[in-house]
Every structure is written in C-alpha cells, then in structure tokens.
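This part of the workshop introduces the protein records we will be handling. Backbone structure tokens are a discrete shorthand for how the chain folds in space. Once this layout is familiar, the rest of the handout is easier to follow. The record below serves as our worked example for the rest of this section.
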Amino acid sequence: MWNQLKTALLLGTLTVLLIALGGALGQGYLYGFTAFALLLNFVMYFFSDKLVLAMHRAQPLSERDAPWLHAMVAEIAQSAGLPKPRVYLVPQAQPNAFATGRSPKHAIVAVTSGLLELLDGRELRGVLAHEIGHIKNRDMFVATVAAGIAGAITYLAHALQWGAMFGGGAHDDDDGGRGNVFGALAMAFIAPFAAMLIQLAISRSREHGADATGAALTGDPEGLARALEKLHVGAERIPANVEPATASLFIVNPLSGQGGLMSWFSTHPPPEERIRRLRQMSPHGHRRLQQA
C-alpha cells in the first residue's frame, strides 16, 4: 500500500513539474505540456522498466548461455517465495547490478558483464539475493518509476534551457517574451535538482532493506559484504556510461568515481556503513568487530 502511494506521489510530482515547465514557457505551451504529462504518466507506469533497460542497452541472457546464473537466480527466488525473475546482461565493464519490473511477476534482474567477471560464486549469490530482496520488498517499481521521471525531467529541462537561450517562448511582447525566457531558464535549472530530490527520498533506506533481505535469503551476510567491497572499488576505478537519473537503481553508485558535485547527491548509503551492518548480522563478523 505504501509503495503504491509513493508511486502515485512520484507520478503526481511529474505532472506538476511538467505543467509548471509548460506554464513557464507561456499560455500556449501549458495545454500541450499538460497532455504530454498525462501521456508520460501512462508510459512511466507501464513501460518504465523497458525504458530503463533500453537506456543501459540491456539484453536478455538466455538460460542456455548462462545456466549456472539462471540456476542461482531460481534458487534464491524460490527461497523468497517469488517467481523466477528474467535475467538481463548489461554490456558494461563496471561491476554492478540492478532489479526492475512492475511487479514480482514481471521482475528482471540485470547484471553487468564486469560483475560476472569479477565476483566468485559466493559473492555473486549475495548480489543476486540483494536484487531479489528489492523484488521481495516491492520497492524496485518505485525506484524504476523515479528513475524514469528523473530522466524525463532532466531531458525536458535541458531542451527548455537551450530553447530559451535561443529565443524560444519570446513570441509575445518584449516584456512578456523576456519573462517567458527567464521563467523557462529558472525551471530548466531547478527541475534537475527536483528530479534528484525525488530519487534521494526513496533510495538510501531501500538499499539497507535489500541488504538485510538478501543476507537473510542466503544466510550468508559475509558473501554480500565481500561483494560490496569489490563493487565499490570497481565503481571508483572503472567509469560507467550511466545517466545520473538511473544511478539509484544499481546496487552500488555507478558514478561514485566521478567525485566532485556528484558525490553530494549520492543515491546510496556509504558502502562502509552497509558492509558494517552486514558483518554485524553474522556471529563471526560480530566477534571480529568487537576484537577490532
């Protein structure tokens, strides 16, 4: 119920922002942007997962090509009491993974080629369990919609920014034209930050929840902790061709290596905190922390 409310809130936010962007351009644009907002709401609700997969050039990974991976996903999904998610491969050297889909029946687990090359079986199981944890907790749809909304707002804001700079919207008298231009520019700069705030509102707590659920599904918190250590280093050293709007979907922030302003808007909890919590879940890890 709460996730449905969050989805409705996100879609409502999308509508308000798009209408505001249209209003900033002038009365003539308002109706068109309102209609576009309603259409985009429909697209985001039913096709946001396909949009996210397309943005990352993800392709289905057949059971014939990776039977061991499919067997691992099926085993963890069965432990979670869920249907087996479909498996997709993202052609990225950076080791990472994400889950998407409208519901557990339509769920997808996507892994990068770098992830499969880097992790051993125990660590990979931990990562897959984390992603299936998102599915079990039913938060991957909210995150997928948020990523789609953030991407749509960002692209529209950039389009309006350039349109305003080159005279778009200045079709009334001079004062009205200048007002439209300044309004569009203001919205163009504000909208991407609003999109980032949408993501920050939902991302951090969901990662801790998926870590805990994944560790419980495998009974091996240490496996996921070791995977997170490797993935964090990989994300810092290997750049990824990922839109900031979709960064919150991944198990570790794919843009963590960029530093600077991007680090201020991290969509993930600090990796050290996640690893510490996981190792506290293990009796052996708890004793090791006490001795340190």
